[in-house]
Design brief:
Shape: globular
Radius of gyration: 14 Å
CATH topology: Rossmann fold
Order of helices and strands: EHEHEHEHEEHE
Number of helices: 5
Largest sheet: 5 strands, parallel
Distance between the termini: 30 Å
Structural class: alpha/beta
Number of domains: 1
CATH superfamily: Response regulator
Helix content: 25-40%
Length: 143
């Protein structure tokens, strides 16, 4: 079984790019462009890691994070263009485990995801102690 990563972002181009990046690095990518759908998918598909945008039109990232925390402890990594310490603190207090400011170099994003995999033991096809997918070719930027 491969580690599952759920990507919740209202920008279709971002979810497509993240899906390709994750699959390239050996992860199963589940994507949605709706906060409400993201909550449903998190409950149904039980992802190992969740990547979450804050600014979404239907249900914002804070609400999604709080809702997901009611039924899972899967790590949540927030990706946002908002670069304000109060926002970061607010999101972490809402239940997020990590926060990165967009644009994020793909190598940095993958390093944070691999860190979460190590911390939770969600290695999927990579048993404990195995090498995780590498960060080679880490030049694309997610924005």
């Amino acid at each position: 079984m491969t580690s599952k990563v759920l990507v919740i972002d209202d920008d279709f181009a971002i979810t497509e790019l993240m899906g390709m990046l994750l699959r390239t690095h050996g992860f199963e990518a589940i994507t949605t462009n709706s906060g409400a759908e993201g909550i449903r998918l998190a409950e149904e598909r039980k992802p190992h890691i969740i990547l979450l945008d804050l600014m979404m039109p239907d249900v914002d990232g804070w609400q999604v994070c709080k809702a997901i925390r009611r039924f899972t402890a899967s790590p949540i990594l927030v990706l946002s263009a908002i670069h304000d310490p109060r926002t970061v603190a607010s999101v972490l207090d809402s239940g997020a485990d990590d926060f990165l400011v967009k644009p994020v170099p793909s190598g940095v994003l993958m390093a944070h995801i691999r860190k979460m995999v190590r911390q939770t033991g969600s290695f999927g096809a990579n048993p404990a102690g195995s090498e995780l997918p590498s960060s080679k070719n880490a030049s694309p930027i997610l924005n």
